[in-house]
Amino acid sequence: MSLKEINYWLIKSEPEVYSWDNIMFDKKTIWDGIRNYQARNNLRKMKTGDQILFYHSGKKPSICGVCTISKEAFPDRTTDGANWSAIEIEFNFSLNKPLPLSIIKTEASLKNMILLKQGRLSVMPVTKNEFDRILDLSGNNK
DNA sequence: GCCAACGTTGGC
DNA sequence: GCCAACGTTGGC
C-alpha cells in the first residue's frame, strides 16, 4: 500500500430523484448527468478512494452519509461527445444522524464550507477538517 | 409559492 | 464583448 492523499467532496442529490436509501440498496451507482462546468471540473479531480459526503437537497436539506469514489472520471454516456464526465461511487456508511443544513449553518468551524457560499453548486470539495467535524457532529467519530 | 443566486442564450 | 431576458437550483 502506497501512501495516498485522500480528498473529500460533497455531492448533492434531490432525494425524489436519487436518495440515500437508493444507494444503500444499490451499493454503487454511476454519478452522471452533471451539466455545470464547475461541478464537472470537480468530478474530474476525484481519485479512487476519495470520500464523498452525500447531501439531500429539497425539503429536508441534510448530509446523510459517506460514499467512496470507485471509478474516476469517464465520459458521461447520457450525452454525446466528451464534454461531460461521470464517476462511479459506492456506499461506505450512513451518518448515525443526518446532519441538517440548519446545524451546519450554526457551526463556526463549518462557516467557510462552499456548500454555504455557492448555493447552486452540486459537486464541491470539502476540507479534511470540515469532513472530520461533520462526522463528529453526526456522532460517527469516536 | 416566493425569491436570491447564478448559469445560459441571444440580440446587438 | 456586453447585457437583458430567461431558466434552473435550492432554501425558506
What's the overall geometry? globular
Radius of gyration using CA atoms only:
15 Å
What would you call the structural class? Answer: alpha+beta
**Strand percentage, roughly?**
35-45%
* Multimerization state: single chain
The helix-strand sequence is EHEHEEEHHEH
Give the strand order, joined by hyphens, for the main sheet: 2-5-4-3-1-6
Q: How confident is the prediction overall: mean pLDDT? A: 93
First-residue to last-residue Cα separation: 25 Å
Given as residue ranges, the uncertain stretches (5+ residues, pLDDT < 50) are: none
Largest sheet: 6 strands, mixed
Total helical segments: 5
Helix content: 25-40%
Please report the total strand number as a whole number.
6
Short description:
The chain is of the alpha+beta class.
Question: How would you explain this protein's 3D organization?
Answer:
There is one protein chain. The chain has 142 residues and is α+β, with helices and mostly antiparallel strands. The protein is 25% helix and 35% strand. It has 5 helices and 6 strands, in the order βαβαβββααβα. The chain has a 6-stranded mixed beta sheet with strand order 2-5-4-3-1-6. The protein is globular. It starts with 7 loop residues before the first strand and ends in a 5-residue tail after the last helix. The model has no long low-confidence stretch (mean pLDDT 93). It binds a DNA duplex (12 and 12 nucleotides) through loops.
